[in-house]
């Protein structure tokens, strides 16, 4: 596996800024502005999509997909006393 194939680790600096350590030991800053990611690496400075942007975008996608997974507790449909349907989760608590 080459250095470019390793997964980067990102540190969120502000709500729209992340930093990461590049394969050469440089620290790069990524910004989310107007819905687009930018990076201060050489490729990013030439307005190209770099490896750092690709990896941060994949991280976003992974985290978003994980948050959209159905809850672990099964949903149960019950009828309330006034005949309205109520959704609730079955949770088992210790006795």
From TrEMBL:
Recorded protein name is: SWIM-type domain-containing protein
């Amino acid at each position: 596996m080459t250095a470019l194939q390793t997964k980067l680790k990102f540190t969120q600096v502000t709500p729209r800024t992340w930093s990461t350590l590049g394969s050469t030991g440089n620290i790069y800053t990524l910004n989310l502005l107007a819905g687009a990611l930018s990076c201060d690496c050489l490729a990013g400075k030439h307005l190209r999509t770099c490896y750092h942007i690709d990896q941060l975008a994949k991280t976003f996608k992974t985290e978003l997909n994980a948050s959209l997974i159905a809850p672990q507790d099964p949903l149960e449909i019950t009828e309330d006393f006034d005949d309205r349907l109520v959704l609730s989760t079955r949770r088992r608590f210790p006795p």
